[in-house]
Amino acid sequence: MRRLAPTAVVITGALALAGCSGSDDAKADLSVSSSYMPQPVSDMAAGFLTIANKGGTKDELTSVTSDAAGSVTVHETVGQSMEEVKSLDVPAHGQLVFKSGGNHLMFENLKRKPKQGEKVTLELHFAKSGPIKVEMPVKSATYNPATGH
After folding, report:
1. Within its chain, how far is the Cα of 90 from the centroid?
2. What are 72's strand-pairing partners?
3. pTM passes above 0.70
4. Which of 31, 99, 127, 128 has the fewest CB atoms within 10 Å, measured from its CB?
5. What distance in Å separates the CA atoms of residue 27 and residue 71, rounded to the nearest whole number?
6. 24, 126 contact by CB (below 8 A)
């Protein structure tokens, strides 16, 4: 019996640890910060934000909608070229960053030009998680955040 006791303790400990990381860490836990839109000068505008994932499973941003524009597309910048993509990964325990000169949102066919100080409402859609509504503040056309994005 004495020889089985340490084994039982190890098995019990392993089961307890497996239970702890099970449900909470097994899905994405998404939040949005640092969102802004430089005041547009045409019928198009860019949008920037950070999507953080504190969960243990990756997710994908699959689309963005906004009543402010005819369409909102997701663009990835690689080197000197930008291209529209269908989705971008939000890594587990990581971030998807949209910043000037990098990944960004394009608001096309704006229904009106939002002014500095206003907010634009958008909704982010994901492959696994529910949608997230964002109130994106409109900043000056030359705004450059201290965070670099």
Report:
1. 6
2. 64, 107
3. yes
4. 31
5. 29
6. no
